[in-house]
Specification:
Number of helices: 4
Shape: elongated
Low-confidence stretches: none
Distance between the termini: 34 Å
Largest sheet: none
Helix content: 55-70%
Length: 76
């Protein structure tokens, strides 16, 4: 029986990716927050739609970033 192979050492990509994710979220929060005066004047139903949409679009750039963090490649 062969002994189990040890896991590969962690790479610098995971901590770097974590800080990039935090940066993306911070920048988007600042952009959206700076527009709150404009959006706040809209009807409440439209505000809800806008904030739901804007609250989910930050996920879009994460797939390639997470792939890069795991594999070192931007595309599969």
């Amino acid at each position: 029986m062969t002994p189990p192979t040890p896991p590969p050492p962690p790479t610098w990509r995971k901590p770097a990716g974590m800080f990039i994710i935090l940066g993306i979220v911070a920048v988007l929060a600042w952009i959206i927050g700076s527009q709150s005066d404009v959006i706040g004047g809209w009807p409440i139903w439209l505000q809800a739609i806008v904030y739901l949409f804007l609250g989910t679009i930050w996920i879009a750039p994460l797939r390639p970033l997470l792939l890069w963090m795991e594999t070192g490649k931007w595309r599969e």
